[in-house]
Amino acid sequence: GVVWHSHFHGLERGATGGVRRETETPGERASRQAKLQQIAQLVQAMPVEPFLPPEKIHGECTIAQLKQMLQRRGLSDKELESFVDRQNLEESLMQLRKYSDSCCICFEPFEEGEPLRVLPRCHHELHVECLDKWAYTFANAVKRQHDPSCPLCKAKL
Q: Are 52 and 111 in contact (CB under 8 A)?
């Protein structure tokens, strides 16, 4: 993952709206670096899958693809074995999938095949780049004491 380096070098807006440089102590720098490392590991472990609109899921996905999508949303192999047919897999996926046709961060529509991160707890889907930038903002001094969360529902990443 690419760390949005320039975002974390102490730039902040002053009371007049101008940008000023904030000096960072060695302890603060170490804290920021540790948080960035923690976030990078967290983000890189999240599943990525290509965006598919519902009609493609119903019409074109193979059973193996449906099972992979369900696994990315936390279903175990044992749970997957309990499904008896394709329709059960599709219905379960549609129930678990927090489908949207656009990213809640940049508001751009998803395009078929575009890589999306699937958030492990809430299952919201976001552009990889948007979610990565969002998560890395939790390394700044104001948010550092908080864990990264979903921009929609605030579930921890």
A: no
